[in-house]
Amino acid sequence: MPSPVSRRLLLSAGLAGLTRKSEAQVTGGFIDQSHLAGHRLRDRAAFESARRTIRKPIVIVGGGMAALCAGWRLTKRGFRDFVILEMEQQAGGNSRWGENEITPYPWAAHYVPVPSRESTLVRELFTDLGLLADGVWDDRYLCHSPQERLYHHGRWQEGLEPETAVTPAMHAQVRRFHEMMAELEHSGEFAVPMESGRRRRADLDRITMADWLRDNRFDAEPLLWMVNYSCRDDYGSGIGETSAWAGIHYHAARGQRDDKGPLTWPEGNGWIARRLLERIRDQVRTGVMVHRIERRGTGWRVLAGDTEYLAAAVIFAAPPFLAPYLIEGAAPVRAQYSPWLTANLTLDRWPEERGIPPAWDNVLYNSPSLGYVVATHQSLKTHIPRTVWTYYWPLSGMAPSAARQLLLDKDWGYWKEAILTDLERAHQDIRECVSRIDILRLGHGMIRPSPGYIFSRERERLTRGVNGLWYAHSAVSGLSIFEEAQHRGVTAAEAALARA
Question: Are residues 235 and 289 in the same domain?
Answer without folding.
Answer: no
